[in-house]
Every structure is written in C-alpha cells, then in structure tokens.
Specification:
This protein is mostly helical and about 70 residues long. It has one helix and no strands.
Length: about 70
C-alpha cells in the first residue's frame, strides 16, 4: 500500500484548523470588548466625580463652542 493521506482526514484537519482560528478570533474580540467596557466605565466614573476625561485615541470633538475645527458652524 502507499502512504497517501486519507481525504477525509485532511478535511477533518482543515475543519479543526478553521474552528481553532474562529475560536481565537472570538477570544480576541471578547478581550477587546472587555477593555472597551472598562474604558467606558472609567469615563463615566470620571464624569460623575467631575474629573477630566483622560481618553486614549481620537477625541469626539476638538473644537470649542459646538463647532468642529475646520468645519462650518452652519
């Protein structure tokens, strides 16, 4: 007999790899959601206590007076 791999075994291995990768994606997504929730909770607590909002990343609005910088107020 020859040492050929069984096509069903190869398909099973590919399916297992796809499932493993999907599980890793779900785990990373869950970790990102938890981190986001923690940041949002910290923002709410800071606002309640009257402290400055120390966010990471882009601010929602950089201008003052309700108009964004570089944009029209109309």
């Amino acid at each position: 007999m020859t040492d050929k791999t069984d096509p069903e075994t190869g398909a099973t291995q590919r399916k297992a790899e796809v499932e493993r990768q999907a599980a890793k994606r779900a785990e990373r997504s869950a970790a990102q959601l938890r981190a986001n929730l923690q940041r949002r909770k910290a923002q709410v607590r800071a606002r309640r206590e009257g402290q400055a909002d120390e966010t990471e990343g882009l601010p929602a609005s950089t201008g003052r007076g309700g108009a964004r910088e570089g944009g029209d107020a109309d």
